[in-house]
Amino acid sequence: MNLPANIPVSTIMSTQLVVLNTTDGLEKAERLFKKHRIRHIPVIERNKKIVGMLSLTDLLRISFADGAYEDEEDIETVIYDMFTLPQVMAKNVKSVSPKTTIREVAELLAKEEFHALPVVQDGDLVGIVTTTDLIRYLLSQY
């Protein structure tokens, strides 16, 4: 398979963003993960300035949140009251621009230990690209 080398990540990134603010609680985060069936949520301040990334794995590390109960509305919040979102989220998040190539994104995700990258333009969050987006793109090339 010989893929084009210069296709920008903007062609495969998700732009329908689910985001959290640093003042949001972890209970809200769990609700968003379940409602949208996603695994990564960018954390922003002042409109679209990204300050962190929360993954479902981060949340699972401190809770008994379980994907098996996706339809359950009641969430046990006691453990969530012990932590703030900034304490749990990943900080110093790497990001890419919409012009970064799909190949460069794939290389970065393959090298690092995370599975999502925020896409930032002029300091503002404009999208997110995940390993799932990359897999879907590769499958579409067959």
From TrEMBL:
Gene3D superfamilies linked to this entry: CBS-domain (3.10.580.10)
Metal-binding keyword on record: no
UniProt keyword terms in alphabetical order: CBS domain
Domain CBS: 13-72, 89-142
Protein name: CBS domain-containing protein
The species this protein was found in: Robiginitalea marina
